[in-house]
Task: structure prediction
Amino acid sequence: MLNTLKGGIVMQQINETEKLVGRFDERERQSLIRIKETQELIEQNRRLTKNAREIIASASELAAAVGR
Result:
């Protein structure tokens, strides 16, 4: 009977550990998704900034040409 009781406790501990590991894995997966989304936003922002600078430079050149 003692072995059965110990076995039950061990199984309960294993189940609890598996649940904790599962939650940890899910949080880690969500973190990796957020990191990838952040990297994509940074790259999009870089491209938009580059495009905006090119547009501003072109507008400045046009304004200078019109002013001549």
